[in-house]
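Exam revision sheet. Question 4 asks you to relate a sequence to its structure. Input first:
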Amino acid sequence: EGFAFAHCTECKATFPLRANVPPQRWWLKLKFRFLVVRDHVLIFVIVQL
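Answer key, structure tokens:
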């Protein structure tokens, strides 16, 4: 068990497994949060008018 994705099912050769971890992009998260806050404030102001 736990053998299927780490080894070939025919020849039992091991597959080199690597984690695909993207680099930390804190500025993308910050930009996204800024845009969300901007949109919420804009909608709030429009509703108040």
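Marking note for examiners. The mean pLDDT is 84.
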